[in-house]
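re: that chain from earlier
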Amino acid sequence: MTKAEPATTSRSSDAPADQGSPAPARRPVRLLRLGSFDAPTYITAPRGDKRRFVVQRSGSIVVVKGGRQLGQPFLDISGSVNTDGEGGLLSMAFAPDYERSGRFYIYYTDRRGFIQIDQYSRSSNPDRADPGSRRSVMTVPHFRSNHKGGQLQFGPDGMLYAGFGDGGAGGDPDENAQNLSRILGKLIRIDPRPGGGYSIASSNPFARRPGVRHEVYAYGLRNPYRFSFDRRRGSLIIGDVGQDEVEEIDYVPGRDGGRQPAGGYNFGWDVFEGRDRYEDGRAPGAIFPVITHRQSTGFCSIIGGYVIRDPSLRGSRYSGRYIYGDLCSPELRLSFLKRPRASSRATGLRVSDLVSFGEDGQGRVYAVSMDGPIYRIGRR
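^ sequence. v structure.
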């Protein structure tokens, strides 16, 4: 593995209007190093919280508080995690009412390689979880080492969303992604129960259709490793990892009032890879990506990010733009998302071995390198 490249600056193009006196210089947007961690995979925090919670692939979650990493992990389930292939502890999400309930959720691959979503609660020490509070929410059998998905995210509606890969190998040999009776190759929407398990809301797009998985919110996905909701507008954005030719960003705009889209979307895999025909067959109502990158241009595994809503970046060219990247191409990119197509541009910020983005409780966005460093995208 290579080391993450040093922080690079990118100056904003949005200067204040000249009113006859010199405009104050804007501080450049840069990569501000938070620290270095043990194979980090994700970073997040409860809304409003000033701490940062760093998920590490081997099975632990550590807390950064007051600018330093605490000596004891928030949670350590290393003995339960399989890190073969694309497995490991891959993300976490805090319940919207975390301050009151203390509940949070983790996504990992267990010793069999199956996908697990578990619920835990914090202990009497707010910087430590209660390891005995584990409740299983969902187990998804998965028999190959790749396409494990990895993202948990609460939507604006308070429901828990998870993205599952299509089952692995290449070309979706099990034909999962277009099959609504199977959960692999899908984005799901569930309502976790405090005591474990989950309920399915009657508002789920397929909740009343017989013979399908009622958890499904969107389908036709190859490996939606990272997805997000715009915290202001509710739009859904998915980075779906490509097969041999195309990496893609899928986007469905939010609705009035900041509500996320209603769901039921088919993103086309494995009939389409990006906008290209991949194999014969039907993909009813397929929605094509708004951004594609050819692997021939240096991309290999798209890493979906977030629409930047960091108050400290207002007035910069980053504000309101979607930031994303790729495992093999270190250049972070910005886009003003729109349908049916959106353009993107390089930021001048570079992170090698990019594995994730994350958003903290203040709305600040981070870039995570699998080599260890995590950087905040901000102004010093």
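The first strand starts at residue 9 and ends at 10.
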